[in-house]
Structures are given as structure tokens and as C-alpha cells.
Amino acid sequence: MGRITLDKVRKAFGEVEVIPPLDLTIDDGEFVVFVGPSGCGKSTLLRLIAGLEDITSGQIRIDREDATDVPPAKRGLAMVFQSYALYPHMSVRKNIAFPLKMAGMDPTEIDKRVNEAASVLNLAQYLDRRPGQLSGGQRQRVAIGRAIVREPKAFLFDEPLSNLDAALRVNMRLEISELHQTLKTTMIYVTHDQVEAMTMADKIVVLHAGRIEQVGSPLELYRTPRNRFVAGFIGSPK
Ligand code: ADP
Ligand code: MG
């Protein structure tokens, strides 16, 4: 279903190599967090997986099939953007339905999927409102709803909570973890926040200047950081 394999994936912008050749496997159903300081290549790596950027060399496989040249809309992955990407003039229902409508799906099926997503996200009573009439957390749930209705093989999140206040961030963090437990779909979550990484991840990928410093569970990274960079970043006492 949602197994993603990167095989010697490399990305250069002109002369500048942002991601040196990198291998990584993300198992079906895993919650994987890419963590690292600003500018280390987290968003670039996510965009390569999504197909929003072309890789310079290497191969990306989704469910064992070569997806390297598959366009983003055909990869079966859904990127969750920050809530300000919602359409302010459309109702919540229309915002969530939008990708399905664009894909030409049957309206009855669209309604069914939107209602299911609204129920999972506790948005059922807000479907006729506009984004401006919702709280920040509700708006972020609408943005997630827009990904859920596509029934993707994997969800890709790029710092989805970074424009929310601290209390709401904690709340949404728990909600996204719960959503993962409910849907059991692969999730790749980018953040520069160690706390988010440690509390949400099955597997953490620590990035530094486009390279993977270490991959492991939060406990493994905390107990046996491979080097000072990982230790410092994870907040390990070592
Ligand atoms: P992060 O998300 O970890 O903050 P990014 O993936 O956005 O990091 O960026 C990694 C590096 O790639 C940065 O040095 C950034 O300046 C560079 N970069 C990102 N996108 C482009 C681009 N379109 N053209 C040139 N350089 C880019
Ligand atoms: Mg980024």
C-alpha cells in the first residue's frame, strides 16, 4: 500500500547539491518524521517524494513500482499544506471536495467521502461555514480533510502546525497522531521541532545539510545517538 523507497536519490539546484545521494525506506503504515535545522533539505526531500520537484538522479519507488517519472497527481500521495492554503470564498464542504471535483469524481461519491472525512475530523457541523468563520485548529483540520478524501497511500505534511500558537500546536499534534492510529496510513511529517518528532514518530530521520545523520525510533535516537549532532538535536544527555 504505502511503502516508499528512495534509492540513491540526489537533488541539485544548478551547481548546488542540496541532497547528496540518499537511501531511505518508509514502510507501509509508518509515521516517519524528517527533522533537522532550517535549510537542511527537509522540504526538498518531501517535494521530491511528492513529485513537486524532479530528482537529479536515483530512483523513487512507491509500492515497489518505479514512480520517478510519475507526475505528482498520479503518485497517490497527498500533501497537507498549512491551513492558509484554503479557499476563503468556499464553504468547508467545497474546500474539502475540491480535489475530488477537479478529478471529475461522481458527486454522490464525493458527498460520501466528504461526510466521512468530516466525521473523522469532527467537522460535521461546520461544513457550511467558510474558513474565516473557523478557529485555527478547525481550519487546519479542513486542510487535512482535503487530503483524506483522496484516500492516499501516504500523507505528506510540511510543518503543518508552524503558524499555530503553542497550545493549539499540542492539540493538533495529538489529533494528527490519533488520525494516524485511525487510518493506519503512511505519514511523512516534516518539522524542525524536536518535541513533535519525539512524540509523534515511529521512525525519525535526522537530516543535516541534506544527509541522513541517523534513522531510528525516538527511543533509539535518545539512548544511542550516533554523534553529537544527533544528541544535540534530540536533546539526549549524551
Ligand atoms: P528545510 O525545509 O529543511 O528548511 P529546504 O529543503 O527548504 O530546507 O532547503 C534546503 C536547501 O535547498 C536550502 O539551502 C535552500 O536554499 C535550497 N533550495 C531549496 N529550494 C531551492 C530552489 N528551488 N532553488 C535553489 N535552492 C533551493
Ligand atoms: Mg522547509
UniProtKB/TrEMBL annotation:
Residues 4-234 form the ABC transporter domain. GO terms for molecular function: ATP binding. Keywords: ATP-binding, Nucleotide-binding, Transport. Belongs to the ABC transporter superfamily. This is ABC transporter ATP-binding protein. It comes from Rhodobacter flavimaris. The lineage of its organism: Bacteria, Pseudomonadati, Pseudomonadota, Alphaproteobacteria, Rhodobacterales. The chain holds residues 1 to 238 of 333 of the full protein.
